[in-house]
């Protein structure tokens, strides 16, 4: 795929992230914004693009992504809701279509990626772990895709290290949050917030907190560019900006 011919269609172009991605593409050498797709777009719209970027909704995303894969487009997914089970189904689709390339990015922030990597390092050493994520009131899904991915990776890091499951007492009570891979995840939706995530670890006589705060959408620009660049040569399914950037993790 030559740099001068990379045409990109963005599904979900009127949302916060979609609008930003369109701006990044228009200003990024080697990429051309071929189509701004919305909920009113037809299935064939944007079919001539080399890359489809999906930043729609958890309900709409799977069908949009599968359609793009089957018509030969490379796909960058920034939509929340891609849990481990859903990713397993996506892997099957990717495996069934020769030459497929899909990158799923729960969060385009570099700081968020590093925060999750640090959480994986700490995970085997603390038996009490909980995740608290906060987003702006317009975010529809809870918990966030980033929080889900963080909990799954933290649980996987503990399993790989032979550690026992996380202690999550009274998890059946609604106020204790949603259990993701055995880890309680709490969601807040507050005005004045862009995105914030804290992973708290408790141990005898101490507590460790890994805190990441996003103050503006500018934090996502470098990750968006990295994802687009990676699709030039990517193959198969890649999950996480950490894989794109080569950030070492325990998972």
Structure in words:
- A 6-stranded parallel beta sheet has the order 2-1-3-4-5-11, with helices on both faces.
- α2 (61-70) packs parallel to α3 (84-96) and α4 packs parallel to α5.
- The mean pLDDT is 94.
- The chain is built from 7 helices and 11 strands.
- It is of the alpha/beta class and 251 residues long.
- The protein is globular, with a radius of gyration of 18 Å.
- The chain has 2 domains: 3-107 and 218-245, Rossmann fold; 110-215, Dihydrodipicolinate Reductase, domain 2 (2-Layer Sandwich), CATH 3.30.360.10.
Low-confidence spans: pLDDT under 50, at least 5 residues? none
* Named CATH topology of the largest domain: Rossmann fold
Spatial extent as radius of gyration? 18 Å
Query: What's the helical proportion of residues?
Result: 25-40%
Overall number of structural domains: 2
How much beta, percentage-wise? 25-35%
Care to count the β-strands?
A: 11
Q: Can you count the helices?
A: 7
Question: What sequence of helices (H) and strands (E) makes up the elements?
Answer: EHEEHEHEHEHEEEEHEH
Mean pLDDT equals 94
Structural class: alpha/beta
Shape: globular
* Biggest pleated sheet: 6 strands, parallel
Query: Can you identify the CATH superfamily of the largest domain?
Result: NAD(P)-binding Rossmann-like Domain
- State the distance separating the first and last CA atoms: 31 Å
CATH class of the largest domain: Alpha Beta
Q: Write out the strand line-up for the largest beta sheet, numbering strands in chain order.
A: 2-1-3-4-5-11
């Amino acid at each position: 795929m030559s740099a001068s011919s990379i045409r990109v269609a963005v599904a979900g172009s009127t949302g916060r992230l979609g609008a930003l991605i369109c701006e990044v593409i228009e200003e990024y050498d080697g990429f051309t914004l071929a189509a701004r797709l919305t909920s009113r777009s037809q299935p064939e719209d944007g079919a001539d693009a080399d890359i489809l970027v999906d930043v729609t909704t958890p309900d709409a995303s799977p069908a949009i992504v599968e359609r793009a894969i089957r018509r030969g487009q490379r796909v960058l997914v920034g939509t929340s809701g891609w849990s481990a089970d859903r990713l397993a189904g996506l892997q099957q689709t990717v495996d069934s279509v020769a030459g497929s390339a899909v990158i799923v990015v729960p969060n385009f922030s570099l700081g968020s990626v590093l925060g999750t990597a640090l959480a994986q390092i700490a995970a085997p050493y603390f038996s009490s772990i909980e995740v608290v994520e906060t987003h702006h009131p317009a975010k529809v899904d809870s918990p966030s895709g980033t929080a889900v991915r963080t909990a799954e990776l933290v649980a996987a890091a503990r399993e790989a290290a032979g550690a026992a499951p996380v202690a999550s007492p009274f998890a059946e009570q609604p106020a204790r949050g949603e259990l993701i891979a055995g880890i309680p995840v709490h969601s807040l939706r507050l005005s004045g917030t862009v995105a914030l995530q804290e992973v708290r670890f408790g141990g005898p006589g101490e507590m460790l907190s890994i805190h990441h705060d996003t103050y503006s959408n500018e934090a996502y620009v470098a990750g968006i560019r990295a994802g687009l660049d990676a699709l030039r040569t990517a193959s198969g399914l890649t999950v996480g900006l950490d894989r794109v950037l080569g950030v070492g993790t325990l998972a």
